[in-house]
Amino acid sequence: MSQPTADAETAFRALFQATYDDLVCFVERRTHLAIADDVVAEVFLTAWRRFADVPETLDNARAWLFVTAQHTLRNRQRSDQRQRSLALRILREPNDTATAAEADGVAARVDLVRAWQHLSPDDQQALTLTVFENLTGAQAARVLGISRAAFSVRLLRARRRLRRRLHQQEATAGHRHPTSTPISETGAPL
């Protein structure tokens, strides 16, 4: 990649300053506030990489950034959906060495899948990284680009929400299902 010219840098900085607030508001109205900054950063990175494609007038450049933000959000949503689908598929797939005794756990798996579907993508991601990917807390924190302490809090809250959802399902059923699977401290079925 060639070095950007001083004129391109100046023009990009002016575009950034003129459109940043509007772009943040646009993205925040369409997604979780927690990821809005990431989406906006990705949009401006795309704009920088493709600066020759960005229209010269401010109004047209602003619209171009909004379109890019919309595409970025759709890509992120598809990625999140694929991740949730993969996690659910893993939860649903029976073990190849399943015995008749393990077949009784099907109801518990269904309960777990239902509870999983009600978790936020952030909760699912925290649990997936530790349970399915077998990452340590420090490794998972690095993957997410957050501190170890922040990941620990996120994981703790995700486990609590999963347990709470499972208990709510049990209460709604009116009794504890005999095959309900307790959840360990790692978030995995026991």
Descriptive notes:
The chain has helices at residues 6-28, 33-49, 58-92, 100-103, 106-117, 121-131, 137-144, 148-173. α1 (6-28) runs antiparallel to α2 (33-49), α3 (58-92) runs antiparallel to α5 and α5 (106-117) crosses α8. With 190 residues, the chain is mainly α. It has 8 helices and no strands. The protein is 72% helix and 0% strand.
Features:
elongated; mainly alpha; 190 residues
Brief synopsis:
The chain is mostly helical and 190 residues long. It has 8 helices and no strands.
List the helices and strands and how they pair.
Blueprint: H1 6-28, H2 33-49, H3 58-92, H4 100-103, H5 106-117, H6 121-131, H7 137-144, H8 148-173
**What is the number of E strands?**
0
Task: Report how far apart the termini are.
Answer: 52 Å
Count of discrete alpha- or pi-helical segments spanning 4 or more residues: 8
Which structural class do you get from the secondary structure elements?
A: mainly alpha
Please compute the radius of gyration using only Cα atoms: 22 Å
Average per-residue pLDDT, rounded, comes to: 80
Q: How can the largest sheet be summarized? A: none
Shape annotation = elongated
In which range does the helix fraction lie?
over 70%
Encode the helix/strand succession as letters: HHHHHHHH
Strand residue percentage: under 5%
Low-confidence stretches: 176-181
